[in-house]
TrEMBL record:
Presence of the UniProt keyword Transmembrane in the record: yes
Key words, A-Z: Cell membrane, Membrane, Transmembrane, Transmembrane helix, Transport
Membrane disposition: Multi-pass membrane protein
Domain of life of the organism encoding this protein: Bacteria
Record-given protein name: ABC transporter permease
Pfam families per UniProt: BPD_transp_1 (PF00528), BPD_transp_1_N (PF19300)
GO biological process: transmembrane transport
The species this protein was found in: Paractinoplanes toevensis
Primary location recorded for the protein, binned into one broad class: membrane
ABC transmembrane type-1 domain sequence ranges: 95-298
Family label: Belongs to the binding-protein-dependent transport system permease family.
Cellular location(s): Cell membrane
GO CC field: plasma membrane
C-alpha cells in the first residue's frame, strides 16, 4: 500500500505539471490583447500599457512566462490577476461558495440515485424502472447549459418557488435550485450504476443462500446486497465531487454565484491568464487528491482489492 501511495503521488506531480503546462499554453495561444480586454472600451495610455506589460511579463516568450508562474507556484504564490487582486485571495473567497454548492449537489444526486436505483433494480421491468430509464436518458441528453436557464425561468421566475439568483452569502434555500441543476450532471450516471450493481448482486449465489436460510427480503437487500452494490457507487460519487467542483461554470454564471466557475468564466472572457491558470491549478490538485482518496476508499470497502 505504501509503495502504491508513493507511486500515485509521483504520478500526481507529473499530471499536475502537465495539466498546468497545457492550460498555460492554451491561454497564451488565445491571448490577443489582455490589457485592452481588461479595460474594455476605456482608453489606456502607453505608460500604463508598458507598466502592465512589464508587471505581468507579457512581453516575454511563452516559456519565460511559464517559468515565472511555476517559480511563484512553488513558493505558494498563485500570482496576481489582471485586476490587481491576489489570485490566492480570490481563491479563498470563491472556494467556500463552490464547495458548499458542490456538496449540496452531490447529496441531492446521491440520494435520488441510490433510492431510485435500488427500487428500479428490485422491480426490474416495472413501470417505475422504465420511467427512470426514460428520465435518465433525457437528463443525459440535455446539457447543463440548457437545463440551468430553463430551471431558472420555470422554477424561479414563472412559479416563484426558488430565488432567481444567489450571492456570496446565500442560504441553503437560495442554493437549492442551483445545486439541483448541478446535480443533473451526475445523477443519471449514478442512478444507472446503482441499478446495474444492485441487479447484478440480486442474482448472486450468496443472495440465494441468504434467502434459503430464511432471512427476510429487507435484511437480504439492506445488509448483504447494498453493502456490495454500493462500492462502485461510492467511488463514483467521490469522483463526481471533483467533477462538480470543476463543472460549475455554467451553473454559477446563470445563478450569479461568485464561486470558482464564475471567476473562471470571467477570467476567460477578459483573457486574464493568471486568474484562469491559478484557478485551474487548484482544480487539478483537488481532482487528483479526490481520485487518490477514492482509490484508497475502494480498497478499504472491498478487502479483496490489494494495491501493490
Amino acid at each position: 500500500m505504501f509503495r502504491y501511495i508513493v507511486r500515485r503521488l509521483l504520478q500526481m506531480v507529473l499530471t499536475f505539471f502537465g495539466a498546468t503546462f497545457i492550460v498555460y499554453a492554451l491561454m497564451f495561444a488565445v491571448q490577443d490583447d489582455p490589457i485592452q480586454a481588461l479595460v474594455g472600451e476605456k482608453p489606456i495610455t502607453d505608460s500604463q500599457r508598458a507598466a502592465l506589460t512589464e508587471r505581468y511579463h507579457l512581453g516575454d516568450n511563452f516559456f519565460a512566462q511559464y517559468w515565472y508562474y511555476i517559480k511563484g507556484l512553488l513558493t505558494g504564490d498563485f500570482g496576481t490577476s489582471m485586476t490587481n487582486r491576489k489570485v490566492a485571495d480570490m481563491l479563498a473567497d470563491a472556494w467556500p461558495v463552490t464547495l458548499r454548492l458542490s456538496v449540496m449537489a452531490i447529496v441531492i444526486a446521491a440520494t435520488i440515485a441510490i433510492l431510485a436505483g435500488v427500487v428500479s433494480a428490485i422491480r426490474r421491468g416495472s413501470i417505475f424502472d422504465n420511467a427512470t430509464l426514460v428520465v435518465t436518458l433525457i437528463v443525459l441528453a440535455m446539457p447543463i447549459v440548457v437545463i440551468a436557464p430553463i430551471a431558472q425561468l420555470v422554477f424561479g421566475i414563472k412559479l416563484g418557488w426558488f430565488p432567481v439568483t444567489a450571492g456570496r452569502d446565500a442560504s441553503l434555500w437560495q442554493l437549492l435550485l442551483p445545486a439541483a441543476v448541478l446535480a443533473s450532471l451526475v445523477v443519471a450516471t449514478e442512478l444507472r450504476v446503482t441499478r446495474a450493481s444492485v441487479a447484478e448482486n440480486l442474482r448472486a449465489d450468496y443472495v440465494r443462500t441468504a434467502r434459503a436460510k430464511g432471512l427476510t427480503g429487507a435484511r437480504v437487500i439492506g445488509v448483504h446486497v447494498l453493502r456490495n452494490s454500493l462500492i462502485p457507487v461510492i467511488t463514483l460519487i467521490g469522483v463526481d465531487l471533483g467533477a462538480l467542483m470543476s463543472g460549475a461554470i455554467v451553473t454559477e454564471k446563470v445563478f450569479n454565484i461568485p464561486g470558482v466557475g464564475f471567476n473562471l468564466f470571467r477570467g476567460i472572457r477578459t483573457e486574464d491568464g493568471p486568474l484562469v491558470v491559478g484557478f485551474v491549478s487548484v482544480l487539478v490538485i483537488v481532482f487528483l487528491v479526490v481520485n487518490l482518496i477514492v482509490d484508497l476508499l475502494y480498497a478499504a470497502l472491498d478487502p479483496r482489492i490489494r494495491y501493490e
